[in-house]
Amino acid sequence: MTSTHFKKEGDLCIRQCNALTSAAYNLTKMEKLVVYYAIHAINMKRVNFDKWGNSIVTISHANFANLYSLDMNNISRDLNKATTGIASKEIILFTPNADGDDGEKALDALSWTTKRAHKPKNGETIVTFAAETMELVNQLDNGCFTCLMLKEAGSLSKAHTMRLYESLRQWVSKGSITYTIEWMIDRYSLPEKYKDRMPDFRRRFLKAAIEDINEKTTLNVTYKENKKAGAKCVHSITFLIESVNGAELENKMRAIETYNLILDQKFLPSQIELQNMIDNYSHLVESGLDVGDEFTKKFDLCIASMPKDM
């Protein structure tokens, strides 16, 4: 299928830690949109903390509906349902070194949230994400995160497709990645019967997801099926990935990183980093970052510290 790649106006970059990208969990599409919203708030440090270190994310119903182009008439009830669902679900991190001798899988399970408050009259829903889960979400050091375009990811039709999109985004710079059928079924919470029914896996998940990704995102994805030597069944899928704006996305994320470096004043950005941030200044504004007096003063200090040919 020919891709109809398009750039969503005012789209936002989010940084999702690779540990979460490769974790196992089962959320609906609306629940995924809430998690994306929360990750963006956490990336931008727009959260409050309770005395136990849990992260409090306030979701404006109007902002949420506008961000994802959703029906404002139903958004309050939809958010109430979605946050109720998230509260009952877990993130599963497999620990294979502790698997049972009979093959039973070992795991660590984390709760997404500890509390929620739904306030229709105020037009907001307040979700408290568990401190341990936020510790996982904030594992962004040493480039251990995947860059996602928030609206682009949110435009996909199903949560399972969104999960595959995230996994492919993680390896876009490499250009390819191979996942076993079992790995995808376990991580994306696909029906267990797919392990023995490759035609169903291929028709109901794989082909439909790739078509959706190619049509609605800036990725071009093809795949090939792999069998073990002498085996009849497909064991894994190799995905070949291209991004039509990979450099643009990376530059936007680097601009946000430079912004945070300037505010934190822990490290002095390089000339190249500063120039990239200047080139992507409009993205900082679109992302809602505060580029007021405090930032301006610290930015001027960085410029003053640079060689005169900056």
UniProtKB/TrEMBL annotation:
Q: Give the GO biological process terms.
A: DNA replication initiation
The entry sums up its family as follows: Belongs to the initiator RepB protein family.
Name the record gives this protein:
Initiator Rep protein WH1 domain-containing protein
Q: Which InterPro entries match?
A: Initiator_Rep_WH1, WH-like_DNA-bd_sf, WH_DNA-bd_sf
Please state every residue range assigned to the domain named Initiator Rep protein WH1.
14-168
Matching Pfam families, A to Z? Rep3_C, Rep3_N
SUPFAM superfamilies for this protein: Winged helix' DNA-binding domain
Residues forming coiled coils: none
